[in-house]
Amino acid sequence: MIEIKNLSSNQRFLLNIFVPSLYLLPLIMAYLGPKNFGFGHEELVYVGLAVGAVGVTLWILSMLTLGPSLAVLPGTDQLVTRGVYRYVRHPIYVGIVLTLGGLFLACGSAICLVYVFVVVVPLNIFRARSEESVLCDQLGETYLKYRNKTYF
């Protein structure tokens, strides 16, 4: 596992740019690539758009709830347990997967759906584990109690 505290400021800056770009790449691929809306099934377009709308709503609410605690790299001095964080430890990551998955289902992009499951989901799991390790170190028993009461 990458030790965030041992990274130089330049390395931290590059991670702050690189990680979000991994979410942008499939959007560019979907925009430029061929579209087969709903994979030929009109109802899948609406299902995909609904899933994407739930995802982007969760993503935005999570970011608003975090406020100044929002950061690309893990670490905090306070634990946010209000709003969606009352139930889910990593709602931004869940929102990202739902947003991208729903969008790619709606536009019928198989390669982008594969990208979500092969790159985005593992990346978010890695990020969640890294965050949890840092938060356990920083907040100790407080974080462990919170982790035991919430979902992913």
Provide structural commentary.
The chain is mainly alpha-helical and 152 residues long. It has a single domain (38-68, 77-152), classed as Four Helix Bundle (Hemerythrin (Met), subunit A) (Up-down Bundle), CATH 1.20.120.1630. The chain has 5 helices and no strands. The protein has helices spanning 9-32, 42-66, 91-107, 110-139, 141-149. Helix 1 (9-32) runs parallel beside helix 3, helix 3 (91-107) runs antiparallel to helix 4 and helix 4 packs across helix 5.
Radius of gyration (CA) equals 17 Å
CATH architecture: Up-down Bundle
Strands, count = 0
Helix content: 55-70%
At the third CATH level, what is the topology name? Four Helix Bundle (Hemerythrin (Met), subunit A)
Morphology: globular
Biggest sheet overview: none
Distance between the termini: 19 Å
Report the β-strand fraction as a percent range. under 5%
Enumerate how many helices there are, as a single number. Answer: 5
The CATH class is identified as Mainly Alpha
The residue ranges in which pLDDT falls below 50 over 5 or more consecutive positions are none
Calculate the mean pLDDT score and round it: 88
Q: What is the H-and-E element order?
A: HHHHH
Main structural class: mainly alpha
> Number of domains in the coordinates?
1
